[in-house]
Amino acid sequence: MWLKDPRIAALVIKALERGASVLQHYDLHAYVVMANHVHVLLTPKIEVRRLTKALKGATARAANEILSRTGEYFWQDESFDHWVRSEAQFAKVKGYIERNPVAAGLVTRPEDWPWSSAYRPNS
Fold it and tell me: What element of type H or E holds 62?
């Protein structure tokens, strides 16, 4: 449940955005950081295994430093990927990701969850 910590959630989002804008590893379409997992919709520009390793490695080091757990495992070894094959499926997956906090009963609208690509402050 470390992702509940706003400092950790913010660093994960910063890393996701950096991977897209600075490193150019992928196009970032949607994300949500929940208390114990993260959902991301992206179009990879490099091998998925490589971008996952880079993203998990950078965020694990930074999160563990915040948590005073340096050298410990942060993420689970596995990740689940899914290939989106149509525009309709893309919209469905994007909606699922951004509605995740609503489905969990944390907010009433996706745009109210601050750790999501749907977030719109004061909307």
Answer: helix 48-66
Spatial neighbors of 92 by CB under 8 A, at least 6 apart, are none
Residue with tokens 């997956």: 93
Q: Where are the domains of the chain?
A: 2-82
Residue 33 in tokens: 């950081």
pTM for the complete prediction?
0.90
Residues 6+ apart with CB under 8 A from 40: 16, 28, 30, 31, 97
Task: Convert the pLDDT of each residue in 2-50 to its tens digit.
Answer: 899 999 999 999 999 999 999 999 999 999 999 999 999 999 999 999 9
